[in-house]
Amino acid sequence: MELLKLSKFKLQLKALISEVKQLKDREISADDQVRVLTQKQKQRDEAFSKKLTALQAELSLSNDIRQKLEKKVSCLESENGLLESKQQELVETISSLLQSKQSFFQVYEDSFGEMKRAMEDRDKKIAVLSEKIKAHSLLFDTIEKEANSIKQVVSNAENALKEREELLD
After folding, report:
1. Coiled-coil stretches, from where to where (predicted)?
2. CA-CA distance, 115 to 111, in Å (whole number)?
């Protein structure tokens, strides 16, 4: 009977050992799952932290840009007032210029007439000088032709003289 009890005890012990092994395996598996889940949670927390930091930086930048834009709008409004007053001054200046335009054109027309007469006189003088230059050019051409003829005659005379001297010798 003791053997039977011992055998039962061994079976129960083996069952308990097997159950303990299963529990340890489950515990290891659960620890692994907890580690993986903790790792994932840390990654999510890091990603969330990065996103939060980026959003805070973007919000800060957006606020800075908004403030700068508000300053620029204020400056533009003040510059617009200045431009409106300058525009009024320019309108007055243009009106004054238009009034003096007629007198300027009269002076211009008078000056243009004098300049036109002076240019016509100059053109006449240029035409006369051009004719004189052409005449002189023709005269120089004629002189050059005569000089070439004289050179030819002298050259012919020299050749004839040489021929006679050779005959005489």
Report:
1. 52-86, 140-167
2. 6
